[in-house]
Amino acid sequence: MSDSIGFIGLGNIGRPIARRLLQYGDALRVYDVSTTACDELAALGALTVSPAEMAARCHYIGLCVRDDTDVESLLYGADGLLACGQAGGIIAIHSTVTQAALLRWHRDAVAVGITLVDAPISGGASGAAAGTLTYMVGCDDAAVLARCTPIWNTSAATIVHAGSVGAGIALKLANNLMTYAAFAAIHEASALADAMGLSIDKLIEVGSANGVVTPQMQAFIRNRSQLAASGGQAALHQHFGPFGALGQKDLNAALACAEALHVKLPATSALAPRISAIFEGRNE
């Protein structure tokens, strides 16, 4: 089996992960729909290849793409990772996807001798660049976990083995609920405080002192306030619009999982269609 590793998805988070993978020692092969992103990694020593060539040459491939549709387009078809992959190879899904799809991909991978695990991440682009990401892993095989851990350690500060395949994405979806609910809470709290003549600084001072406001919440509301002051609604939409779209996708994935399990999430159901407005500071 080849000693090469592969990585697909060189976006905001994937690119710094791939940069850190260059430290691992094995030859790194990369792919992205953006040739500019590929060229950046190639300049640092990575090899740019097609997904089919990557599957044929790499014993490990990490995927960090947007959603279920993107993952499926890479896994399936005559030139897909499953058709072209090596028996005994590993595919790690870092994307936030639906659990039902993840489990189906796992079954299809097993059928062709490939191990597919879920390893979604938390910590954002800054965490990827600093090597402080948290990985939430669903994996049934201790030997596979042992093979993957040194690879993930190039960008991780914490690796949590959540359980069997599917448990990693379950943990990520649940963690996302807390994150987006916290953003919603400080969004509405700051709107009320502002209407009553209080500054955000005072709200953060008290919330930080009593542990209610986390550093992540504080960074979100301060960054949003500064951007609104300097560029107005247009700047907020340009910067936070993609985060809102991603949030809605993630929350909808959690709701799909909850529906399949007959679990009611009324607050999340109310939050999902409003998360874009929250990111952009719109009180609708």
Short account of what is shown:
The protein contains 13 helices and 9 strands.
What does this structure look like?
The protein has helices at 14-21, 35-43, 51-57, 68-75, 81-84, 99-111, 124-130, 142-152, 167-195, 200-209, 215-260, 266-271, 275-279, and strands at residues 4-8, 28-31, 47-48, 58-63, 90-93, 115-118, 121-122, 133-138, 156-163. Helix 1 runs parallel beside helix 7 (124-130) and helix 9 (167-195) crosses helix 11 (215-260). It has 2 domains: 4-165, NAD(P)-binding Rossmann-like Domain (Rossmann fold, 3-Layer(aba) Sandwich), CATH 3.40.50; 170-279, N-(1-d-carboxylethyl)-l-norvaline Dehydrogenase, domain 2. A 6-stranded parallel β-sheet has the order 3-2-1-4-5-6, sandwiched between helices. A 3-stranded mixed β-sheet has the order 7-8-9. With 284 residues, it is α/β, with parallel strands linked by helices. The protein has 13 helices and 9 strands. GO terms for molecular function: NAD binding; NADP binding; oxidoreductase activity.
What does the secondary structure layout of this molecule look like, with pairings?
Elements: E1 4-8, H1 14-21, E2 28-31, H2 35-43, E3 47-48, H3 51-57, E4 58-63, H4 68-75, H5 81-84, E5 90-93, H6 99-111, E6 115-118, E7 121-122, H7 124-130, E8 133-138, H8 142-152, E9 156-163, H9 167-195, H10 200-209, H11 215-260, H12 266-271, H13 275-279
Helix pairs in contact: 1-7, 9-11
Domain 6-phosphogluconate dehydrogenase NADP-binding: 4-163
Keywords: NAD, Oxidoreductase
Active site: 172
